[in-house]
């Protein structure tokens, strides 16, 4: 199973790009692809991550260059302290490995955010990032399906 996990606050404009991307990918209704749209990454989703062959986390970033998504690998980071109310992709992958003995291939796709104010509309910068992210994810799904 391939997992697209989008997270962020969809009531804070561009911060909602992660859940928006996950929802749009869900509309493709592709076999073997599961999506989650979450406000935060929390420990209870480690089991879902562990069940996946590959995971792509999708989030907003204020550090990115406008119009340019960024993708980087996610490696587990084991901490001696517990995850609080929210964690990072690295911590969630580490939990999946520690608790369930599974280590799926994982990547973090970040979309540039220019407006984090209250609202549900995405800025033009974020909308372009969503379009790029969807193209990247479609290609990723195709490549992962061919490997299976």
Description:
Helix 1 crosses helix 4. This protein is α/β, with parallel strands linked by helices and 148 residues long. The N and C termini lie close together (10 Å). The longest helix has 24 residues. The radius of gyration is 15 Å and the shape is globular. It has 4 helices and 5 strands; from the N terminus they run E-H-E-H-E-E-H-E-H. Strands 2-1-3-5-4 form a 5-stranded mixed β-sheet, covered by helices on one side.
Question: Rg, please?
Answer: 15 Å
Task: Give the CATH H-level superfamily.
Answer: HybD-like
End-to-end Cα distance, whole Å, is 10 Å
User: What is the averaged pLDDT score?
Assistant: 90
Which overall shape is indicated by the principal axes computed on the Cα atoms?
Answer: globular
Order of strands across the widest beta sheet? 2-1-3-5-4
Record field, number of beta strands? 5
- Based on the coordinates given, report the CATH architecture: 3-Layer(aba) Sandwich
Total number of distinct structural domains? 1
Tally of helical runs: 4
- Classify the secondary structure makeup into a structural class: alpha/beta
- Assembly state of the chains shown: single chain
Q: Give the % helix.
A: 25-40%
Q: In the CATH scheme, what's the topology name?
A: Rossmann fold
Along the chain, the helix and strand elements come as EHEHEEHEH
CATH level 1 name: Alpha Beta
